[in-house]
């Protein structure tokens, strides 16, 4: 109690109008605070003169300031730590029946499940390596693309899935690529083009799919700088679980 009385006297001397703020650092109830400050107001001059010197007051004030500074910075660093652990958004795009949902389920569960065509986005939290992600599987129907803008602006990663068994899938994927790159700034987004279904007999080589994709972007008169955003390519089988290259891309 004596220490609290001394603290009250010092703080009353420096900050008369806000004496109770200092006690937010201590677990002292309001009645105790009121009693201390009432007594302190009555004998402040006597206590300051007889108990401590001015140098002691300054030293104690500096200690209190250091405590406030430490707690404030601790809160800042804790906030930064929480921010650094925020979830990153993975957006999976591609034409219908390219295997987007199969890939999504493989990333989430590591298993294959038969899927059906969806008409609404699917979202799921997933941990890959040491990082937490929010994975969004967006439908391939062009009539739903008006909903795509909100997802693009929040995306940290975009996986563009192409069915390598169908030549028109590369063209459809190029149309999607053209739409997103001409309406959004993707320079800070990591983008991977994925040739899926390479386990099937009729699958086409990745270079052939890539050639058809880029050729259609040329037809759409997309500039070279924008085309360079689609430089990362890989070939997988989401059905067989051969997706290590995708996981490595997301971990990097």
TrEMBL record:
One of its GO terms (biological process) is Golgi to plasma membrane protein transport. GTP binds at residues 94-101, 140, 196-199. Mg(2+) binds at residue 101. It comes from the Eukaryota. It is a single-pass membrane protein. The chain crosses the membrane at residues 52-71. This is Signal recognition particle receptor subunit beta.
């Amino acid at each position: 109690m004596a220490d609290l009385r001394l603290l009250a006297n010092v703080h009353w001397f420096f900050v008369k109008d806000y004496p109770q703020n200092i006690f937010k650092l201590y677990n002292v109830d309001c009645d105790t605070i009121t009693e201390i400050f009432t007594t302190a107001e009555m004998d402040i001059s006597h206590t300051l003169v007889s108990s401590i010197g001015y140098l002691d007051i300054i030293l104690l004030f500096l200690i209190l300031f250091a405590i406030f500074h430490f707690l404030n910075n601790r809160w800042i660093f804790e906030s930064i730590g929480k921010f650094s652990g925020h979830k990153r958004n993975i957006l999976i795009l591609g034409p219908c029946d390219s295997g987007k949902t199969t890939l999504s389920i493989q990333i989430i569960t590591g298993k294959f499940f038969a899927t059906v065509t969806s008409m609404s986005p699917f979202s799921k939290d997933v941990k890959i390596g040491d990082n937490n992600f929010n994975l969004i599987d967006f439908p391939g129907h062009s009539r739903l693309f008006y909903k795509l803008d909100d997802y693009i602006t929040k995306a940290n990663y975009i996986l563009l899935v192409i069915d390598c068994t169908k030549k028109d899938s590369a063209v459809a994927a190029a149309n999607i690529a053209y739409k997103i790159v001409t309406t959004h700034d993707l320079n800070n987004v990591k983008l991977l083009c994925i040739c899926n279904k390479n386990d099937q007999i009729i699958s086409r080589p990745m270079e052939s799919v890539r050639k058809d994709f880029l050729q259609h972007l040329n037809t759409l008169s997309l500039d070279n700088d924008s085309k360079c955003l689609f430089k990362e390519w890989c070939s997988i089988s989401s059905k067989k679980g051969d997706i290590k290259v995708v996981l490595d891309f997301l971990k990097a």
